[in-house]
Amino acid sequence: MFIPTLERQCTSEQREKFLPLCYDYRIIGTYAQTELGHGTFLRGLETTAHYDPNTQEFILNSPTISSIKWWPGALGKTSTHAVVLAQLYTLGKCHGIHPFVVQLRSLDDHKPLRGITVGDIGPKMGFGPNDNGYLKLHKHRIPRTNMLMKYSQVSPDGTYTKPPRSTLTYGTMTFVRVLIVHGSAIALAKASTIAIRYSAVRRQSELRPGEPEPQILSYPTQQHKLFPLLATAYAFHFVQLAMMKIYTDVNDQINNSNFSRIQELHALSSGLKAFTSWVTNAGLEVCRMSCGGHGYSQASGFPRLYADFTPSCTYEGENTVLMLQSARYLVKCVRDARSGKTLPGTVSYLSEDVSAVHSGGSSGRDLSNLDFLISLYKQRASNQVHFASDKVDRGISAGMDLVGALNSASVHLVSAAKAHSHYFIAKTFVESLKLLKASSELQNVLHQLASVYVFEGIAQSSGDFIEDYILSGSEAKTIRQLAVDLLPLIRVNAVSLVDAFSFRDEVLQSVLGRYDGNVYENLFKWAQNSPLNKTDVHPSYHKYLGPLLKRNQSKL
Ligand SMILES: CCCCC/C=C\C/C=C\C/C=C\C=C\C(=O)SCCNC(=O)CCNC(=O)[C@H](O)C(C)(C)COP(=O)(O)OP(=O)(O)OC[C@H]1O[C@@H](n2cnc3c(N)ncnc32)[C@H](O)[C@@H]1OP(=O)(O)O
Ligand SMILES: Cc1cc2nc3c(=O)[nH]c(=O)nc-3n(C[C@H](O)[C@H](O)[C@H](O)COP(=O)(O)OP(=O)(O)OC[C@H]3O[C@@H](n4cnc5c(N)ncnc54)[C@H](O)[C@@H]3O)c2cc1C
């Protein structure tokens, strides 16, 4: 995050000064924004940067215990520098959060500089190798030119020039949220690879007396656990490609001072980061549990995969907060649509009349047709966004201000943002396959994955579709069965579909997910290498167990 911030927020002179040092690893930096007391509420950050025109320096300070920077990755022991986000004060006025490059440690002996107290925040649930750290600033002075001034400036006499958009400071977070969508795709692909390969190796239970124990991958329940998640990994692969394309396009526009799509990008990246990381987080646990006891062993790779992935739901914007950000924009789009404005591509459906006639009993509609089903996802999203938006309007009519009305409707707003994200993902998956140049055999297999993703997505949220009369109960039941009917077809190619991710064993880090399937021998080898097995009799015997046993034996 340190380098992308410099690349996006530096003037050309600052780029020339700082970036070569980063690229050559002559300095190592972190992104120090979160504080003990604030991570989500950026405008509440307390670190200050007061400009001193006499020396043309900024004085950075952590005025309170809650202002200590807390969590930034590699801050504790590794980083020599940080981008520090602080409240900028000049000529007696506060101008809000701005980024500053601060050197933390000497480049000679790596010791913290004067005015810098820095260290590791202590053991965490995961990310063990990462020294997430704390930083307390004691009136630490930095040159004026260390404020990143691409968008806003402080002149030598202290005059402040404001940015074209205050939220341009938030640009790195948007970029990393887009990366996290990719991270979700990768994590779910890894978990699917481990679980499906192991499920092809593991045989368990005797269905009928005398028959060989079946592969657990042959059980419909095991397939129902794993194949929708496999399909989701493929869906997230295509959606992260689409998200990155939109990010790149909008970022190019921003670089040409066209800020027209910055809100749409913020809303989409926020919703997709939250949606994909939540789904992946839950999916990792399903994959682990589908591997039985061995899934709980460190040898499976799941404990580390989960512990390192799960903070994706928190960092870079806590998921609920980001869903609310996305929903806030959707509500605004409903208003714009009602006033006749044209809406941007990813939200244009909110101005369409997607109201459908209740299908009643037997609808005669082709419930296996993906294009038709995507139109139902669209209808669900539109209904939920309009419902939440109407809640906000009713709150305002009842005398609330906008903030109060948004807060009062926030549960529905989160549901609306989730439905919007889900529609975008399902639509992108189906459309991406249409554009894919692939053999008919491959198209057929990928169509099976897209179908099970779309069917299961409706089955797992059938309440949304039935409550709004988008589907009848019997239609929802039919779609649920369509998903189950696909499972044995996907079974045929399941192992090939995870092999296609091409994770090397060294990357997968899983005995259960080994490419050669040689699990049991390697589990035993792995166990023998466990530190506890260095000696047959563990040293603790002589200190504790031995005396205890001998003392009690003497009583026999
Ligand atoms: C290839 C595989 C890679 C896998 C791994 C990938 C990544 C892993 C790497 C890193 C992870 C490790 C480190 C993690 C780092 C961090 O966590 S860094 C810190 C992250 N912190 C946050 O994200 C803070 C979240 N909070 C916020 O963003 C803001 O406080 C919040 C948006 C919630 C509220 O802003 P605020 O100004 O207080 O209130 P408003 O809601 O009124 O917003 C004002 C307007 O600003 C618009 N806006 C907000 N954010 C943005 C944005 N980013 N871009 C554009 N616009 C934004 C918002 O929509 C409002 O606009 P309107 O007034 O409605 O027009
Ligand atoms: C592994 C890891 C690495 C990190 N790396 C970095 C880093 O490199 N740099 C950095 O600056 N930070 C980093 N962070 C910090 C991270 O960005 C914050 O933890 C994150 O932004 C969440 O903020 P918070 O901790 O204040 O949570 P809070 O916002 O306090 O969340 C707590 C609860 O409050 C709820 N909540 C908060 N606001 C609202 C609201 N407006 N409406 C409804 N509910 C709300 C949330 O939904 C959540 O349930 C890292 C964190 C972790 C776990």
Automatic annotation (TrEMBL):
Pathway membership: Lipid metabolism; peroxisomal fatty acid beta-oxidation
Superkingdom: Eukaryota
Record's catalysed reaction(s): hexanoyl-CoA + O2 = (2E)-hexenoyl-CoA + H2O2; (6Z,9Z,12Z,15Z,18Z,21Z)-tetracosahexaenoyl-CoA + O2 = (2E,6Z,9Z,12Z,15Z,18Z,21Z)-tetracosaheptaenoyl-CoA + H2O2; dodecanoyl-CoA + O2 = (2E)-dodecenoyl-CoA + H2O2; glutaryl-CoA + O2 = (2E)-glutaconyl-CoA + H2O2
Domain Acyl-CoA oxidase C-terminal: 370-550
Subcellular location: Peroxisome
Cofactor: FAD
A Pfam family of this chain: ACOX
Chief site of localization: other
Acetylation among keywords: no
Domain Acyl-coenzyme A oxidase N-terminal: 1-28
UniProt KW Lipid metabolism keyword: yes
Keywords assigned by UniProt, alphabetized: FAD, Fatty acid metabolism, Flavoprotein, Lipid metabolism, Oxidoreductase, Peroxisome
Acyl-CoA oxidase C-alpha1 domain: residues covered: 170-331
Family the UniProt entry places it in: Belongs to the acyl-CoA oxidase family.
Protein's recorded name: Acyl-coenzyme A oxidase
Lineage of the species this protein comes from: Eukaryota, Metazoa, Chordata, Tunicata, Ascidiacea
